[in-house]
Amino acid sequence: MKDFSLYVITGEQFYPHRHYLEVIEEAIQGGADMVQLREKKKTKRELLDMARQLKALCDRYKVPFIVNDHVDIALAVDADGVHLGQDDLPLEEARKILGPDKIIGISTHNLEEAKRAEEGGADYIGVGPVFPTNTKEDVVDPVGLEYVRQVVEHIRIPFVAIGGIKLHNVDQVLKAGAKRICIVSAIVGAENVKEAACAFARKLETVR
Amino acid sequence: MKDFSLYVITGEQFYPHRHYLEVIEEAIQGGADMVQLREKKKTKRELLDMARQLKALCDRYKVPFIVNDHVDIALAVDADGVHLGQDDLPLEEARKILGPDKIIGISTHNLEEAKRAEEGGADYIGVGPVFPTNTKEDVVDPVGLEYVRQVVEHIRIPFVAIGGIKLHNVDQVLKAGAKRICIVSAIVGAENVKEAACAFARKLETVR
Ligand code: NI
Q1: Which residues of B touch A91 (CB under 8 A)?
Q2: A10 in a labelled binding site
Q3: Does residue A1 lie within any of the structural domains?
Q4: Is residue B1 a part of any domain in this protein?
Q5: What is the mean pLDDT of residues B176-196?
Q6: Is B73 within 8 Å of A89 when comparing Cβ atoms?
Q7: How far apart (Å, rounded) are the C-alpha atoms in residues B171 and B204?
Q8: Catalytic annotation present for B38
Q9: Which of B64, B105, B136, B159 is the right S-S partner for B80, CB 3.0 to 4.6 Å?
Q10: Does A137 have pLDDT greater than 60?
């Protein structure tokens, strides 16, 4: 897997008057180097169309494109990988379907889940929610920076901190040891998406 | 595709105090010869578990097992096929993922959709809802028996009439030309599931 540091996720509720392709392109131009399609209220057919368009965009910028949850849609558009929650298809099933070369990321909320993902062959894990967040409908209690520190100490595969990370609290996350962060509303919901992405990218440069 | 005539679909809301495996097994014993897993409120992981169990059950009875909507779950459990609505993954994408040997069924509500499915290589189509139904959340207006007659006249691939079919109205459906019917609540929600299936199977024998 090509390494990444600034991972952005779609969220149509954050840019109701803009087209997702424009928003994500600006995020990439600002420095986002991995993109995930995550929309919980779309039909499969709508998701397929979005996935196809985003895959073409990401290919142009040579940025990996990841599909949340839907392994079938990832297959259909030849996405670079999938991101799976603890209630989604298990890692081993997704790996069987996608083969060894696709990226599989797993959301984790504690060290036990992180270790299981690592042992199961995940390419990266999500670590969070670090802070309270209103992005997901099924809100999980924040796990805090302590879980980030545990992962730094005990997990060897790449991890990305996620959940409520904003410009005003990102320093704490980086100080806890994160080298990759996942941002939703603070980038795609920003007034100037490119500048917002750029501001996070500059923060990340300080820890590379 | 092995032919079928009595297609049953799961629907946990119809047997809240019973286990789905027991209910579906009784339906098969009564004469159901195709089974579909359709649950709209389960996580992928719950669906995967159900799919695995139902596949094993159906294999024992040599009855094809079909997964609604989720092509990835169908792959994971090596189901015999998928059933796709008009908002699900399109036929051509599902075919690419599943290959030529898996069954793909498509829900249709008018002749245009039916023809598109036939031309696209569907193995069978669903034709309905024939009568009003409360099985699906996203309720489609009933298309009536007239659409069944149109399909009999214009479509050559197998079709299965679906939607609100009960013992008291099934004769009309068969008279309109259907030789395969899909039943949910009138079988899986019956007090005696096996007898209910058997009653429909006997009706179908009169048109074979
Ligand atoms: Ni659907």
Answers
A1: none
A2: no
A3: no
A4: no
A5: 97
A6: yes
A7: 9
A8: yes
A9: B64
A10: no
